[in-house]
Amino acid sequence: MKILGISGSPRKESTSRLVQEVLDATGEDTEFISLKGKNIAGCIACLGCVKENVCVVKDDMQELRQKIVDADAYVIGAANYFMTMNGLAHCFLERWYQFRHREGKSVTGKLAVAVGVGGAMGTPVADQIETFMAYNLIDTVGKVSGQGAACCFICGYGETCKVGAVQMLFGPECKITEEIIPKIEKQPKVLAAAQAAGRALGERLRSGNDRASTAQKVAAYLGERFKEAT
Ligand SMILES: Cc1cc2nc3c(=O)[nH]c(=O)nc-3n(C[C@H](O)[C@H](O)[C@H](O)COP(=O)(O)O)c2cc1C
Is pLDDT above 90 for 226? Predict the structure, then answer.
């Protein structure tokens, strides 16, 4: 079984670390890719993907497409920017629109773990990744959230900036020291949750994931959410 791990953060920091923790616990063959430095635009709704389920926009998503198709499961991570997932991760996931048309079967019924990281919280981002996965009829078997270091810890003005994360988290008299900088390694509960999610993903794959029934289950869940919203 092949599991593709993607960190959608433009930095190779805490999101990458947490995605890797999940991957390592799966016990399966894994590949990790950071989207840092990649050129991936958002979906432009050109509908060029409708007939063949292949996006026609020429950028770094092209090389990632085959890896997505070949993988049996995904560990997708993104960073919390303004309480939503960071733009690069959003662009990347928008482009999964190419898999949805004309009963495209490239990803439906596969499995995922969603990873969200924020300077304060990653939970909303993990929830958003789960929604993206559901739209492609992918079952999210686990969600993990952790706290990373906001840029305010290294920008040079963190101790005095009144609107920055340092004062928000630790108050106006705060001094930045190594001890107070959030790191995934310092969060045993988060690491344990990541390992549990990775193990659960590996076990689901090894027990034989019937993609047709998984897709049906996610479609029913989506249907319920549509009903609630209308
Ligand atoms: C533009 C921007 C907006 C951010 N907004 C939030 C936010 O609303 N909530 C939050 O918890 N963290 C926020 N952060 C902090 C990041 O989520 C944090 O630095 C996290 O560690 C990023 O993941 P990474 O370490 O993998 O890059 C923001 C960071 C940036 C650069």
Answer: no
Q: Is 120 in the pocket of ligand 1 (CB under 6 A)?
A: yes
pLDDT band at 103 (very low <50, low <70, confident <90, very high): confident
Half-sphere exposure of 169 (CA within 13 A, CB side): 21
Ligand 1 pocket residue status of 181, Cβ below 6 Å: no
- Mutation test of ligand 1: which of 22, 81, 121 has the most ligand atoms closer than 8 Å to its C-beta? 81
Cα–Cα distance measured from residue 142 to residue 102, given in angstroms and rounded to the nearest whole number: 28
Distance of alpha carbon 27 from alpha carbon 41, whole angstroms = 33
Determine the topology of domain 2-148+184-229 in CATH. Rossmann fold (3.40.50)
pLDDT digits (tens, 9 = 90+) for 18-30: 999 999 999 999 9
Question: Which sequence spans correspond to the domains of the chain?
Answer: 2-148+184-229, 150-182
| Of 226, 61, 69, 205, residue with least CA distance to 142 | 205
Q: Which of 80, 75, 63 is nearest to 11 (CA)?
A: 80
Query: What's the gap in Å between 151 CA and the centre of ligand 1?
Result: 7
